[in-house]
Fold each of these.
Amino acid sequence: MAAENFVDSTKNLEHIENEGTNQHLNQETSHHQNTLGLFPNYINVGGLYLSSTLITSFIGTVLFVVFLMIYRFLKSKNPFNKFVNFVDRTFEGIIKFFDDVTSGLPNYAKSLVLFIFVYLLWNNLVGLVGDLFAGVVPALHSVFRPVATDITFNAILAITGVMLAVFYGFQRHGLSYINKYFPIFKWVWIVENPRWIKWWILKLLDILLGLFVGILEMISEIAKILSLSLRLFGNIFAGVVLVGLIIMAAGAFWGLMFKGYNPPLLFPLLVVVMELFVWVVQAFVFAMLVASYFKVAESHH
């Protein structure tokens, strides 16, 4: 009888231990899902898996359309409305600035640079507001995430800018632009201009040097894509993590000092203002770098 009681007690202890272990694992899993990882989560929406950054992009696009509708409605009612005048002056200043920066470039290059700046700026602002709520409720990170914290999105944007700059180089200079990567026309020079053997040797050395420089140019094109993608990702992701940490720390501090009253959004306002400035700068830098790639392609000789 005592042996049976001992066995039952052992089984109960094992059951309690297993329940505790499972509960601990569930808590860790829940905590892991609620934290911000390097890659976005994918959510099943009607059988279609969408990333959290794509959902945020949709939300930002919808809010931008609503913003334009409100602007159009207010302007139709009163063209001299202060809000309307502010929006007009802001966008006129942005368009004029980038038009001056991209002067001489084709319309698709100007449109791309302007689109990159406005799209990144708007989605960063939407992401900043949303990240405040995600900082208070970490579970929102699984469905909401700033677009620029998706390295895939940044890479697509960077590839588009760099490849269009290369296309513009060919459009501007013709097939001779290929000499930037492969000195093909230098081979044609040897065939069309036969000279003494020493000239051939010097020209072959020139071609080999041109091939080496061309390889460096191709590596630089890849480096442009990587630098654009990783710079934007690193700065925005670090800002999101910093805001989240400040909110959690502020909430814990306020909870210890003033029990029963915990407004975590009061403390990180300075950090939010700083991150707002950083995100505006990052959108500006990304657009300006893409514009500089077009300018380099234009001035190639």
Amino acid sequence: MTAALEILEEKNWRALAENHCARLAPLTAGYRRRRSLGKSHPVEDFLFQYYPNPPGQLLRWHPGIGRAIRSSGFGEEEVAESSRCGHLVRVPYRTEKGVTWADPAGLDERQRERIAWVASLLEATASRPAQHGCYGLHEWAMVLRTRGRTRFATPRCLSVSRPDALREFVDSQRLCCTHYDAFRFFTPKAAQLNSQSPGLDSRIQLEQPGCIHTNMDLYKWAFKLAPWVPGELLADCFLFALAARAIDMRASPYDLADLGYEPIRVETPQGREAYRRDQAELSRQAAPAPAAASCRRARGSRLPVFCRRWLASRVSAGRLLRHGFCSTIHDR
């Protein structure tokens, strides 16, 4: 079995694991500190609150499918369940002759189906042209006719001072949200104005690669596919999603100037064009690329790039099939 794996020598994989923590630990520490004080940051804490992924698990580095690590052994503290290496000595990992890897043999049918479905969603999303005409109005649609009430636990002021001005602006625009997890927070009036009604079961049919929340969700799917996704990719995806969230909030009707976020004023033609450019750049960074090139980018690039099609093909139809994860790619 190990003959088919790329084996990382100890000094190399430990360096990768340390770098993984160095990239993410400041963000998890900031979230924990604010939570202990009963505070919340609308950008930096969103990924921890919206996606129910424990911060400690985010710090765990995995070699990923097709890779193994060579080790001279783990110290007593390292194998503790709470340590950053403890997961490497537990299921689904196995060790033979000093080489450790995640073994898919223990996957049950439900886990195989989840992997196949995620791959189907990613592949379907990547197959569509990106749409860049929503201008981030989903956040506006979530407060339409709410008399100034906001969705944040820590109240934020609306940047639009008059409710009538917010209503008039939204009414003047075309709402065209395709993302279920944004649309479900629309107010009833805003939902009526949207060009379609995305649902939980229509994600494979409607998700498109220009959507800022769809690109944010790449982090969600990478986390769900752990330990089969390499830690470098998970970190790339988390930081990519954080950048997307910053754009999302800058274009929202909330005033975050005190936190250092310059608004993208989508109420103006210039602001809508600026949002369209930023949205297009995000989808370009996450866009499909030839397999070899995207593999190099995903593993080695310093840019927050996470290639949707590369993940889908590598994690499902390619290596997972050869390792017995799933026999087919199908819609759930």
Amino acid sequence: MNPERPPNSRRRRLGSELRALRVKAGLSQREAGRRLGFERRKVARIESGEGTPRQAELEFLLGLYGEDGGARRTEVLRLAATAGETGWYERYEPELARYLEAESEARRARIWAPTLIPGLLRTEAYAQALLGERWDPDLHRARQRRLPGLSLDVVIWEPVLRVRTGGAAVMRDQLAALLRRGGEPGISIRVLPLETGGHPAMHGPFSLLDGPLGTPTRVDAPCLPDMGHPADCRQGFTALARLSLDTARSAAMITEISRHMG
């Protein structure tokens, strides 16, 4: 095992992936260590992110866990190769850093926004008006740089577009930015009209982040104890997509709201 260093998010994620594969294979830490020829606590250190397995050890573990090929193996090897790197998000508090890491590596994001314009789509003026002194321009711009190459599907509740956050001028610019973003490849912005009836996602906002192939979907739904599982949020988002306006009609509504914002 490579020399120990304080665990970063990449090593923690590598450890989490290896732990999930071990459990799936029906092995205890002690049994996995015995097969590899070292003590249980070494497996525990790898799985906690406190240590990184050497290439030969990793190859053996993946074979032991039945991962001889495929996307999951490729992702684990990628994580191991970059385990020593520090992501730009590491300077933030752990829970936010984990979300930012998942967002930065996601290939697809689905976001339900019933209260605020999503962070990935906010203008600087809107974000400043919303967050005040808590607004972090470096964080804002780093997240915006993630948009090219990300498949982004957003559903926004109509009242969010009508609230004059920061005043009419700031909100008009924000609506114009939504229209521009909605015309970019891979970005879909739809509006759920106010008159829509009840639906499975009424509890509050959530995000679904699909990582590299073979990795589990990350759910960010801190206020939704009843929707903490990816399947629940997928079902909710499917219902929202069915009930919302299509992208063309959504763009027309955003344009109309902007036109009447004095």
